[in-house]
Amino acid sequence: MVAGARRRAVRDGDRQTDTAHLLHSLLESDPEVRAVFENGAQVVRLLGYLVQRSIGYGLQWQGTVEDSGAVPVVGAVKETGWSPAALSAMEMALERAESRAEPQALGMDLLAGLTADPECRAVEVLGRAGVDVDVLLRRVEAGCRQYTPGGHGFAGGGHSSAR
After folding, report:
1. In this structure, are residues 4 and 12 in contact, taking their beta carbons and an 8 Å threshold?
2. Are 86 and 21 in contact (CB under 8 A)?
3. 100: exposed, middle or buried (Cβ count in 10 Å: 0-12, 13-18, 19+)
4. Is the distance from CB of 88 to CB of 117 less than 8 angstroms?
5. Of 2, 12, 106, 158, which is least surrounded by CB within 10 A?
6. Which of 108, 112, 113 is nearest to 159 (CA)?
7. Each residue of 26-74: pLDDT tens digit?
């Protein structure tokens, strides 16, 4: 999933991988993340906005650094190629996984990390697509409570890794 976000950023001509790239990759690759949205139409709308990023919507982001103040901007982008907000979301995802004694974060962990920053691009895209982020966070938390003891994913099946 992370590799997909990086490829998307390079293909879009962006100098950094940001939270919108992560959200796009999550929606494309993780059925459990797609299932936490209210309906399929909401996911389709989101993907539509994200696809338009390189042909109009999101062009105002090119050449700018996504910054919510979580990480020093210059070092984060220069050293990692990730926006500070994306780094913060991935760190939060890892912390959530560690709290469950999981070796890697799941897509739901990353979605929670993305939605935790109201100033990030992923949240902007969610809002434009008509997603109520507070409702989404409640659905994510409800889904996360379905993890089975021992860290074997969701009670109903396998899991997708955010790695």
Report:
1. no
2. yes
3. middle
4. yes
5. 158
6. 108
7. 999 999 999 999 889 999 999 988 888 655 555 555 555 565 554 444 4
